[in-house]
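Justification of computing resources. Each target in the renewal requires a structure prediction run like the one illustrated here; the chain below, 263 residues long, is used simply to show the kind of job we budget for.
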Amino acid sequence: MRLAGAHAVVTGGGSGIGAAIAGSLAREGARLTIVGRRLEALEDTAARIRCGTRGEGASAGSIFVHSGDVTDWTDVERAFRAARDANGPITILVNSAGAATSAPFQDVTLEDWRSTMAVNLDSLFTCCRLALPDLLLGKNGRIVTIASTAAVKGYSYSAPYCAAKHGALGLTRALAAELARTNVTANAVCPGFTDTAIVADAAARIRSRTGRSEDEARAALAAFNPQHRLIEPEEVASAVAWLCLPESQSINGQAISVAGGET
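Resulting structure tokens:
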């Protein structure tokens, strides 16, 4: 219960990495607000945490869910206001909402580019900007952004995503420098290919384009990891929880890869 008294807001918390992070922070005793587009998925995540499904303990004092679009300033403003009303000032912000697409660069449209930037980069500006006044008031303010190994290297057929994630890491480092003399830290966690719906979609695209089997497609993605396996969401969540602990105050401006040595 090392985060007792903290209020963590997790975006993209309805599934995958975000849901695992929500469970990890709840086990440490944080009051929790989970934000995402799909209310039913958010409620399912909250129910699993409460009942201890998948080992996610039911120790959190309060779990609040709010549906909203992180690319929309008004939606985020409304969500954070409701979060404060439910659980008090925000002391931890975890930017986990994101989306990935894949296409040759010559086929990328301006709409593709802008939509990828909106969810993976613009949303970070919105969430960090609106949470910062609260974060500065608390004893141990934390910003943790899920940035991907695409923040530190390039991948073919993923130009918009890589550009957005590089931007996410740049924003993280800028905030870390600017806020270094405050109580707030800003860090990025950079997972490799993780066993989530995003990887399932990527495997489906590989199958459709190459004729490989599902197992072969998943193995191709796992091969990026020197350990030749997909990362589990709970591994990413553990890194995030560690960064949120009071004793992690000196960890600032870092890009922490959870990728088996890929980067």
